[in-house]
Amino acid sequence: MRNHLVILSIFIFSLYAPLSKCAPNDLIGIWIINHNSEHVDYSFIEYQANGDKCEIEFSLVNSLDVTLYWNKWRLENGVIHSSIYNTTSFIEYGFEIGDKINTLNKNELFVDMVIPEGDYETEYHYKKHGAKSGQICDTVRKFFKNKSNEPTK
Prior knowledge:
Elements: H1 2-16, E1 29-34, E2 41-47, E3 52-59, E4 65-76, E5 79-87, E6 96-104, E7 108-115, E8 123-127, H2 135-144
Antiparallel strand pairs: 1-2, 1-8, 2-3, 3-4, 4-5, 5-6, 6-7, 7-8
């Protein structure tokens, strides 16, 4: 009976333990977010091992709106820190966004934005298995190739 209690305690603790042990490789790949299930409002995000995080966001809520982001990312204590490197939005170079990982597995990623502080909803990402590596970042980098100091790959 005591062994059962120990195993049950370990299991319950593992459900609520922080995800600070997430490995950066767990994020590598292409993820999709549906921002608003009532409209066509999606983001395609690619995390690369070289520290690039690229996003193509498009919305057909009132008209076609496409926004590109080229960020530099790192993972620290279960928080994805993304610094804006280049974007078509109003956000300035160097602006940092922090997303606390709630769930990360081979199919899904749930995050809560913690930087900047505010009242945000949890974002649900699902993994696009089989997507060709580089599809998102290559597109975003090509768009910005004349707008940044870093050479494109």
